[in-house]
Design goal:
Strand content: 15-25%
Strand order of the largest sheet: 1-2-3-4-6-5
Order of helices and strands: HHHEEHHEHEHEE
Low-confidence stretches: none
Helix content: 40-55%
Shape: globular
Largest sheet: 6 strands, mixed
Mean pLDDT: 84
Length: 198
């Protein structure tokens, strides 16, 4: 991926992050908030490229980050410098404690043993949205292809009820709900590929 392409993806992820409750919570208010969203988007896209986890729809209007991971891979210390960068450039110190607390709860809902796929981010730009659009279907098919290929479950969570319904319409099961400290409900979803029901 060349520099220009990468910048285009970062710009799109930046604009999508501004619509997502979780990212609106963690990005510190005031000052140049756009710059903070951009820093977060850059961090996410670079991490996705490094881990070969970036999925882009054919028309480039849908972007997802789908990690193949496990609990033991989720090592905070390995990432400490990036985390410090995020605290300084995105969340602010005051927010950091609550974010870590929330993240710990969220991570406990995912498998504690074995590998799984984790949908860290999935966004479709406004003009290509709708459950029946080609972009949504194309991306869902890629998620399922990977789950089937690796024979491991796929996990996601969202605080947007309409997104939780789209996931369920796509065949995910809602396995947990949590009253998030923000007052929203967080929906935890899982997809088990055929032959991997557990």
């Amino acid at each position: 991926m060349d520099k220009e392409e990468k910048q285009e993806i970062i710009t799109k992820v930046t604009s999508l992050l501004k619509e997502i409750p979780s990212s609106m919570d963690i990005v510190k208010k005031g000052g140049n908030r756009h710059k903070r969203f951009e820093y977060l988007a850059t961090h996410m896209v670079e991490k996705a490229i490094e881990k070969d986890a970036l999925i882009i729809s054919e028309n480039r209007m849908g972007i997802a980050i789908l990690f193949k991971t496990s609990r033991k891979e989720d090592n905070f210390l390995k990432d400490i410098w990036t985390q410090i960068g995020l605290v300084l450039n995105v969340t602010g110190i005051k927010n950091a404690y609550q974010i870590v607390k929330n993240q710990n709860y969220i991570k406990k809902q995912r498998p504690q043993t074995g590998e799984y796929l984790y949908c860290w981010f999935w966004g479709i730009l406004a003009e290509s949205r709708g459950a029946d659009t080609q972009v949504g279907k194309e991306m869902k098919d890629e998620f399922y292809r990977q789950a089937k290929e690796y024979q491991i479950p796929l996990y996601a969570e969202t605080r947007m009820r309409k997104n939780a319904l789209v996931y369920q319409r796509f065949g995910f099961e809602l396995f947990h709900q949590w009253l998030h400290p923000s007052g929203d409900t967080m929906y935890f979803l899982r997809y088990n590929p055929p032959g991997n029901e557990r």
